Every structure is written in structure tokens, then in C-alpha cells.
Amino acid sequence: MRIPVIAGNWKMNLDRTAAVALARAVLAALPPGSAEGVEVGIAPPYPYLEAVRGVLRGSAIWVGGQDLSPEPYGAFTGDVSAPMLTDVGCSHVIVGHSERRQRGESSELVGRKVAAAIAARLAPVLCVGETLAQRESGKTAAVVLEQLDSGLRGITAGEGAHLLVAYEPVWAIGTGRNATPAQAGEVHALLRDRLAKLWSRAVAESVRILYGGSVKPENAGELLAVPDIDGALVGGASLVAGSFLKIIAACPQRAR
């Protein structure tokens, strides 16, 4: 059984005090063994990574970056490299989020970032997703498969062993809308089939594919019950401990 993952993407929110308080609240509600069968992670803003990691050190909750540079070091003002993320205790990093793709990040650049993460032993959370116009014109499959193929170009099955994929339809991010369980499940199955073709069916069955896009306590249960949905990448609802914890509790595997 694939262990589900609930990851909170805090985006550009909170200050240091609020970030530490939120991390403490989540940790306090998840003592050892309380979330058995569910993997939990948090991606805070860069300036608060070390503070949040300090709170969570020794727990099972992982900390990840929200993006990274494809370069390991150098004259790249404002960028943050994979070695820097690992140096402050990150184990994961989000790559190719639609909010970055919409600002000009190409699939080729996303692929370089995935490779940089893997080289630094960071687990990439590779995001793919279509816009509303692309969905309405019947291009969903072409868009998400191109993004997946480009993101994993040159990556071997062994290198991608710890990869997470996140399907985030652009039209559902921060809009209050979300894909129906059937819509999300269809794309997740499509992505898993592509992974099987790129690597093997056995590897594809081991990769966790998360859903993201206005995930809330009210809709988490029905989305997480879909067989090919292995968790959620949560935005706004992860900024409130109570909401985030309810989504964690909605995992079917947790209920068993």
C-alpha cells in the first residue's frame, strides 16, 4: 500500500512568530503514532525554514522548500540552491508549481530543477496541471503528460524512487473550485500509466501522486478515497492547524 502524503504549502504567508506557532500546533496534535499510516510535510517560506525545522526536529514531519535553483551555487542573486535547502534540514522541495509556471518557468527549467534536487538527495514534489482554457479545449492529457515527461527527462527509475507528483489543475488553485473525484482520478490514472511507460509498472505503482487545488476538510475525504490519489498538496487550508489536521484525519488509511 502506498502511504498517503499530506503536505502543506504555506506559500508567501505568515511571519516568523506565526510560522513557529503553526508548526508547534501541528506537532502538538500529532504525537508519535497519532498519524500512523500518513506522511506529513510542511513547506514554509524560505526565511522560516530553519525556525520551523527547529520546531519539528526529531518528529516524523518533514520540511521542504517551495522552489529551488537548478544551479548548486554562484552569482544567482535571490535564488536558493538544493545544497542550501539540505543544509537547513529540508528533505523535500516543490518543483514546477503552477504559480511559477504562470510567471514564465518553462518545462525545460522544471526538469533541470528536478535533476538538481535529486542530485542533492532532495525528494522533488513535481507539480503538473492544466489551465481552465486547456481543459475546456480538451488538452488536459497533452499538457500534464508534457509537463511530466519534461520534468523527468533523463531521470532513471532508481533516481525517481522518492519522487512525489502533484496534480494541481490551475483553475482550482486558490479559486475555491476543485476537480471532482472523477476528474482528478482520471488524470492521476493517466499520470501513473505514463510513469509505467517511462519506467515500469512496478515503479509507477510505488510513486505517490497527490492532488492539489482548493483542498479543504469539506472535500478531502471524497478526493482521498479515490484509489489513484495518494494524498494532497494543501495551500490555504494548511495555514490553519485545525483545517490541516482535519485533512490529515480524512486519509482513508488513517481510519483503518
Helix content: 40-55%
Q: Order of strands in the sheet with the most strands?
A: 7-6-5-4-3-2-1-8
Average pLDDT taken over every residue: 94
State the CATH class: Alpha Beta
Descriptive overview:
By secondary structure, the protein is an alpha/beta fold. It has a single domain, classed as Aldolase class I (TIM Barrel, Alpha-Beta Barrel), CATH 3.20.20. Strands 7-6-5-4-3-2-1-8 form an eight-stranded parallel sheet. α1 links the parallel β1 and β2. α5 packs parallel to α7.
Could you provide a short overview of the structure?
The protein is α/β, with parallel strands linked by helices. Helix content is 42%, strand content 14%.
List strands and helices in order, with pairings:
Blueprint: E1 5-9, H1 16-29, E2 39-43, H2 49-56, E3 62-65, H3 82-87, E4 92-95, H4 98-101, H5 107-119, E5 123-128, H6 132-136, H7 140-151, E6 164-167, H8 181-198, H9 201-206, E7 208-211, H10 217-224, E8 231-234, H11 241-249, H12 252-255
Parallel strand pairs: 1-2, 1-8, 2-3, 3-4, 4-5, 5-6, 6-7
Helix pairs in contact: 1-2, 1-11, 5-7, 7-8
Q: Notable features of this structure?
A:
eight-stranded parallel β-sheet; 256 residues; globular; TIM Barrel; alpha/beta
